[in-house]
Amino acid sequence: MYKIKIKLYRKQKALTLQELSMLTGISVGYLCHLENGTRKNPSIQMMEKISSALDIPISEIFFSK
Asked: By the 8 A CB rule, do 32 and 43 touch?
């Protein structure tokens, strides 16, 4: 599930939600919802921003088990 992976990769990069927000231009609230699983189906643009900021392929974060 991508919610676990976003948090895992963010922590591996030693980034806070605030830092990831600044890197992606995505609000802390939205990122928090993605990590907690209360927000589902992010747009491809959101996926691209997150994967770019974490330097991890989109497929690794959002489409692998």
From this structure: no
The pLDDT score that the predictor gives to residue 4 is 87
Give which of 39, 42, 40, 54 is closest to 6, Cα–Cα.
54
pTM more than 0.85 = yes
Inter-axis angle of helices 17-24 and 28-36, to 10 degrees?
120
All structural domains of the chain, each given as residue ranges with its CATH number in brackets, are: 2-62 (1.10.260.40)
Given the structure tokens 């591996």, which residue do they identify?
12
State both tokens at 28: 């802390």
Going by C-alpha positions, the residue among 29, 24, 26, 31 that lies closest to residue 53 is: 24
